[in-house]
Amino acid sequence: MSPGAGGVAALLILADGRFPAGGHAHSGGAEGAVKAGRIHDPASLEAFCRGRLHTAGLTAAALAAAAAAGVDPLVLEEAADARTPAPALRATARRLGRQLMRAARATWPSPELDALAAARPRGAHQPVVQGLAARAAGLDPTAAAYAAAYESAGGPASAGVRLLSLDPFDATGVLARLAPEIDQVSARAAEAAHRALTEGPGVLPAASAPLLDIAAEQHAAWPVRLFAS
Q1: How far apart are CA 177 and CA 3, in angstroms?
Q2: How far, in Å, are 31, 64, 77, 110, 140 from residue 5 at the CA level?
Q3: Distance CA 149, CA 52 (A)
Q4: Distance CA 185, CA 143 (A)
Q5: Cβ–Cβ < 8 Å for 24, 163
Q6: With 90 as the cut, is the pLDDT of residue 7 above it?
Q7: How far is CA 202 from CA 68, 82, 97, 135, in A?
Q8: pLDDT digit string, tens, across residues 142-174
Q9: pTM
């Protein structure tokens, strides 16, 4: 990976769970999966994170990489809508995008971030904002893809510790075992992003996870929940 002019440190800041982008309040679907019994131990948590990485994670990583590569963010907004059929997940993506936008504009001021914020005052999709934030930080499309891909698995892994009182070492082990696949997903996303510059957003991955969509709609209707999504 070549992080670009921003260097590795900028990628670490963007991907850090302590970056004030609001991700800590979301489980990435893990809370619904725990209640349904699909996540109950480290092995099932790993299976869930792997599935999310190769579906929603791949799609998000490609959108982020395309934004970092210079594809029109408003075009990517339409592509993100088309790839997010569940209303609850669209609302979540925009809520997270709005919070990330605030953090990114304070950290890496950018006319492109300002323009997207003005065009989408209620929030743009998180991966699109993530890609523009990476671009503002001097990162290349591959680095943007890494940030999105890592978050797609890291969020549920972290949530699993809180939901099931898992040993944090076990959750970290899950991410370590998924590291080669995060590499693969990030590379695939970046390659698609470069193609999108000349071929349009239709070449970006549109991997689907219907069970995540259904669970998100159910979770949104819960009267009491630990995580926002």
Answers
A1: 23
A2: 38, 17, 26, 15, 8
A3: 9
A4: 12
A5: no
A6: no
A7: 17, 10, 22, 21
A8: 999 999 999 999 999 999 999 999 999 999 999
A9: 0.94
